[in-house]
Amino acid sequence: LALLFREILGRSEDSGVFAYFNSVPRAMFTTFRCSFGDCTTEAGLPIFEFIAGKWSYLTILFYCFFIFAVTIGLFNVISAIFVESTMTSA
User: pLDDT by residue (tens digit) across 9-42?
Assistant: First the structure.
């Protein structure tokens, strides 16, 4: 996903998000930050507000699906660990 964002968002220097996706390590770090809810610029503005203004809403939809999958997947793993430890001790 970070590579996809790097190729789509990191090519245009006139966008407000070029600094966050201009290299693969920076794109990976930004994607990591966004997956845990800190998807803002240094000024505190949401990164994907810039993207909605410059690119299509398909990119935003893809990002929303990514956040949904990470959130549901993370909570599913945490719940499974909790249930397994409860069932083992019962």
Answer: 777 776 677 788 888 899 899 888 888 878 888 8
| Dist. CA 9–CA 88, nearest whole Å | 47
For tokens 């893809």, the residue is 62
Q: Who contacts 40 (Cβ-Cβ below 8 Å, separation ≥6)?
A: 46, 47
Q: What is the pTM of this model?
A: 0.68
In order, the DSSP letters of 46-69 are BHHHHHHHHS-HHHHHHHHHHHHH
Residue 83 Cα distances to 21, 42, 78, 79, angstroms: 39, 39, 9, 6
Q: Which two tokens stand for residue 37?
A: 């809810």
